[in-house]
Write a structure and sequence with these properties.
The protein is of the alpha+beta class. 52% of the residues lie in helices and 9% in strands.
Length: 671
């Protein structure tokens, strides 16, 4: 029992890591759960000390002593080979109990869940890796088959299974010594391996490539692939096609590897050595073609390469086309993946000072920002975005104004009203008339949209003054845009402000010299009048205080005393007539006066000022305001008496002046 416990503890210390670490010297990885088994390894999930996900190949020495040499050979070869088509080595270690190899995260090749384009691209990658192994490294893989191929998260194939790899022309190659103990190897190895004394060449891997193709296409091969497969399976190694020969023949026009997807992948791998014309032509058509590419591969393989290309200047002046492809590929990504792959790159790109890149970013701002968290947009993207409002290039300023519609919903109401709307209002005074027009349109859309947006306070104290200023702009489209925005915002303004401030400013534009401005002015006025009418219907009949007759007369007298001639027109009719009659009576008793004396005649106990009537000699100018009402003008005592006596509604008696029942109507006519 103690022996079994010791064995289990030893295994747990190697696989799983007690205390949260692997416990393996010089191996900074934590071994996780087992995910697959491929001779002679068990594959485990793992993580590095910096949190990256990896795959860890574990060879248990006590259980596979006969394969120890093959496992040690694989570790040695993995440490020295570096190629995009070869499984990427990240670390390794050997202890007394096991051998560990950490690689990029992969899974064994599963041909049951396959995509035809990925299979063709995978065959190309494996053939290219074999070219590197055979021609550059002078090595022979000698074990090419499905079990030697692994698939990354992006769907790319990687060449692994280096247990039998040896040098070309080796006297005692590993594949010949170990071939007899490898499960299934005797049935797929090349014929020359069985012949003692025959040295291995690159033709060995041509045979292995044919074996892999047979496993990929068990029923029917694509057009053109069958002939190449037959050449790879030639029993005569001298006449057999090699992996480099297969790549060359398969890429010819109409060949099995001459597809849009394979060409795009190949171009991206060599884009840095292409000239600017080739890059421009490729990126112009990539966006439409990307829609047909395998989604996972495009998002996890092509998208990071495109973002890197844009960030480090590999797109020349084709930033817009590359970003269009980025948008096309990234549109179906979930929020978590987008935040991991795209968002960090977008933040870095917005901080760039390259105007061509910034212009392209602003063109695609809506799509690029859709998958980003609002907090990231506010903290990391918006500050760099806002600098575009003050850029020296008019094209950048205009693109920034247009992109503000995409930015506004992401920055929140606080930033919108405290900063963004102010930038747009400043743009209304820009030197470029097109920018002034577009900024007004943007403001109108932000103010008129439903939901959280421009507050009523910002609308009244920030937006309204800018609109009133724009109504006097010399550029007709600016005036028309200001009118359109005013009409759109009218229902949110206070009706009193509209009547007193906005309508008077718009009225001159009803007769503007430009017809589009006149049409826009009529529409805006109609909206505002309807708004004012609705407000007026809800107002009370009067805002005056209800006072009795005595109180009203007393207040009228007080107003006359305070205002003098300015308040005569609102004095009561009785006091006016009474004052006039008293003045006429006084004049008739005192006689004619000198024109230059300027002496006023007042009856006893009555002042002429409250009545609003002043007697002046003929030849002097008429009193202010009196001349505006001819029916009540009094130029002389004679005129006064004539005016009074002509009113049949008024009669004189011993007790004073009396008013008949019909005085009100005639008096109103006289006034």
């Amino acid at each position: 029992m103690s022996g079994l416990s010791s064995y289990l503890m030893s295994t747990l210390s190697r696989v799983g890591g007690l205390g949260g670490s692997s416990g393996i010297p010089d191996f900074p990885f934590v071994v996780g759960e087992k995910v697959a088994t491929v001779w002679p390894w068990t594959i485990h999930a793992g993580t590095s000390t910096d949190g990256k996900h990896v795959s860890i190949f574990v060879f248990d020495k006590p259980r596979g002593t006969q394969y120890l040499g093959a496992a040690q050979n694989a570790l040695r070869r993995m440490r020295t080979l570096r190629h995009p088509g070869v499984l990427r080595y990240m670390g390794g270690a050997e202890t007394s109990d096991a051998i560990y190899i950490a690689t990029e995260r992969i899974v064994p090749l599963d041909l049951n869940d396959r995509n035809e384009e990925l299979v063709r691209w995978g065959l190309f990658r494996i053939a290219e890796a074999l070219r590197f192994v055979n021609e550059d490294c002078k090595l022979v893989h000698a074990n090419v088959c499905k079990d030697a191929v692994f698939v990354t998260d992006a769907g790319e194939w990687r060449l692994g299974g280096l247990e039998l790899m040896d040098a070309v022309g080796a006297e005692r190659p590993v594949y010949r010594e170990m071939g007899s103990v490898i499960p299934g190897y005797a049935g797929r190895m090349a014929p020359e391996i069985k012949v003692q004394g025959m040295q291995g060449t690159a033709a060995l891997d041509g045979w292995g490539l044919a074996e892999l193709i047979s496993e990929c296409y068990t029923t029917e091969m694509p057009l053109g692939l069958g002939a190449l497969h037959a050449q790879l399976r030639n029993n005569n190694p001298k006449l057999r096609m090699t992996a480099p020969g297969f790549v060359e023949a398969a890429q010819r026009s109409g060949g099995v590897l001459d597809t849009a997807f394979v060409r795009a992948c190949r171009f991206l791998e060599s884009v840095t050595v292409k000239d600017s014309h080739e890059r421009a032509e490729f990126f112009a058509g990539l966006g439409a073609a990307a829609a047909e590419f395998p989604r996972v591969f495009a998002q996890r393989k092509m998208l990071p390469e495109l973002l890197t290309l844009v960030e480090f200047g590999g797109a020349d002046n084709g930033h817009s086309a590359v970003l269009a492809s980025v948008v096309q590929i990234a549109r179906d990504m979930d929020e978590t993946e987008y935040s991991t792959v795209v968002a960090p790159a977008v933040v870095r790109l917005f901080a760039s000072t390259d105007r061509a890149l910034r212009f392209a970013l602003l063109e695609h701002a809506t799509a690029l920002l859709h998958g980003m968290h609002d907090d990231v947009v506010v903290a990391s993207v918006y500050p760099a975005f806002a600098t575009g409002f003050g850029d020296a290039a008019p094209a950048i300023r205009e693109a920034t104004v247009k992109a503000a519609l995409s930015m506004a919903p992401r920055v929140g109401s606080k930033t919108l009203n405290s900063d963004l709307i102010k930038h747009l209002v400043r743009a209304v005074a820009d030197a470029e008339p097109g920018i002034r027009t577009n900024s007004l349109i943007c403001i109108g859309k932000l103010c008129a949209k439903n939901g959280p947006g421009v507050t009523d306070t910002s609308l009244r104290y920030i937006v309204c003054p800018a609109l009133l200023h724009a109504l006097r702009d010399v550029f007709p489209p600016v005036r028309a845009a200001a009118l359109a925005v005013s009409g759109a915002c009218a229902m949110r303004w206070d009706a009193v402000d509209v009547a007193r401030r906005v309508v008077p400013a718009i009225s001159p534009l009803l007769v503007d010299g430009e017809r589009p401005v006149r049409v826009a002015a009529v529409k805006a006025i109609n909206v505002m009048v309807a708004h004012i009418e609705g407000h007026a219907r809800e107002m009370p009949e009067t805002v005056a205080k209800k006072m009795d007759k005595v109180g009203a007369q007393a207040e009228a007298v007080a107003d006359l005393a305070a205002n003098g001639w300015g308040g005569w027109a609102v004095s009561s009719l009785s006091s006016t007539i009474s004052g006039a009659i008293s003045l006429a009576s006084s004049v008739s008793h005192s006689g004619a006066r000198s024109e230059s004396a300027g002496v006023r005649s007042e009856p006893a106990g009555v002042r002429s000022e409250p009545s609003g009537i002043r007697s002046e000699p003929s030849g002097l100018s008429e009193p202010p305001q009196v001349s505006q009402r001819p029916s009540t003008t009094i130029n002389s005592p004679t005129a006064v008496s004539t005016s009074i006596s002509s009113n049949a509604a008024v009669s004189q008696s011993a007790g004073g002046w009396e008013f008949n029942d019909d005085w009100g109507e005639d008096a109103a006519d006289a006034w």
